[in-house]
Hints:
With about 240 residues, this protein is α/β, with parallel strands linked by helices. The chain is built from 9 helices and 7 strands; from the N terminus they run H-H-E-H-E-H-E-E-H-E-H-H-E-H-H-E.
Amino acid sequence: MGIKPVARLARGLHSTGLSGDAGLARQVLRFYSRFVPIEGQDILEIGPGQTLEVLEHAMAAGAKSCSAVDIEAYVSPDQAKRKQIAYRIYDGMILPFEAGCFDVVCSYTAFEHLRYPAVTLRECFRILRPGGRLVALIDLCDHSHYGRAEPDPLRVFDCLRYSERLWNLMRWNRSSYVNRLRKSEWLTLFNEVRFLLRNEESQVNEEIGRALPALSYLHKYSHDDAVTAVLTVCLEKPGK
């Protein structure tokens, strides 16, 4: 996607985030609210894609300020301004904010697309205030599985069949890139950045679990890593 006209076309066709689904946006805000307060908070959402409605609902719920950051301009500055949301584009590494300026950082099915997850987590830690929290729902499945006319439930982790080198050749420059980190690897990264794990929830793929003995490409992983499809975490920056 390094060719600009191709990148623009791909961005226009690519469906991201919640795809502007207002009902789902309300559900996502309720999800965030399970872990963090909304009223009076300075909130940043990472990777909202085409959907700023979650933050729009947060503003209506009393958030002090709402900001969004993404690697592509999926919405216009005027759209964001009308919704009272500060909208920034970044390089996928350094978040364009001062240290200690947010109470909450949140993300819904975006962290699995990070090309530099360790860098992003360090950046989240930097921009949070002491006692601030990061809430993320991370989809660990192979995203190329979605949208198939006849999805095969045993292919939801097909991305793990390939070597890292081959996977990067296949996906690194595509908008559908997925970093393939497993649950234990995410938990290790959180710990290395010095976040405190306040809540952790895992959704397991039962069909993969039943078929696991026959899925040899998953045998190198722990059972937990081999069957966990979705990871939800609430992390806290210590010090308050």
